[in-house]
Design goal:
The protein contains four helices and eleven strands. By secondary structure, it is of the alpha+beta class. An eight-stranded mixed sheet has the order 2-3-4-7-8-1-9-10. Strands 5-6-11 form a three-stranded antiparallel sheet, with no helix packed on it. β9 and β10 form a beta hairpin. The longest helix is centred in the N-terminal third of the chain and has 25 residues.
Length: about 210
């Protein structure tokens, strides 16, 4: 119930209803496709900056804002212990966005992990409050996150249905390297690479 309340506040009624329906249906059947993207950071494209938004890194778990409850749904304690970083966006004293970066490895789905090469990082999860979307904030926070990193390459993934996020990432230079389809029937799960041989270099079933 708490998770639903958090989603209602941060994503709005329509998105929350869609999330609930997908979650219930996925208990019995799931057929979803994930798009994987890569960016040589040297080719990162700048984006329009909204100077009213202040971005700051939260260096440890004690700095996490208690009133930004969407962050509390994530596995932040484990991420910090593994050297991950969190960038948050604020506007007029309100927390409106966050972006995470990870090194070493990142768990994509249950049982599927993306192994990161040396000098590279994973970007995500990414989040912008529903009242502040379609304003370029997601692109702005990813650019800020990567400009402050020491990554040579950045990787991320997006559900193939999430066209706005895919479009935003491509505009700042990310390019698709492959797709994975997850099929689950009554708890029995398989992963099928639907596009991109390069993915086999990174993905491990763990």
């Amino acid at each position: 119930m708490k998770k639903i309340q958090v989603y209602l506040r941060s994503d709005g009624f329509r998105n929350t209803l869609s999330f609930m329906i997908r979650s219930i249906v996925s208990l019995f059947y799931k057929n979803s496709e994930t798009v994987f993207l890569e960016l040589p950071v040297v080719t990162l494209k700048e984006t329009t900056k909204d100077t009213s938004i202040e971005f700051n890194f939260l260096e440890d778990i004690n700095m996490l804002p208690g009133r930004f409850d969407r962050l509390q749904l994530l596995n932040v304690r484990d991420w910090y212990s593994r050297g991950s970083h969190c960038l948050v966006g604020m506007q007029k004293g309100e927390f409106i966005s966050f972006a995470w970066s990870h090194v070493g490895a990142y768990k994509i789905h249950e049982g599927l992990t993306f192994i990161l090469p040396e000098n590279s990082g994973w970007v995500g999860p990414l989040f912008v409050d529903c009242h502040h979307r379609s304003k370029g904030i997601n692109k702005q926070q990813v650019v800020k996150l990567l400009r402050e990193s020491h990554f040579e390459y950045a990787y991320t993934s997006v559900g193939s249905w999430n066209i706005p996020s895919l479009r935003a990432l491509r505009r700042i230079g990310f390019a698709e390297i492959g797709r994975i389809r997850e099929i689950t029937i009554f708890g029995w799960r398989i992963y099928v690479a639907t596009k991109g041989e390069k993915l086999s270099e990174f993905l491990r079933e763990i």
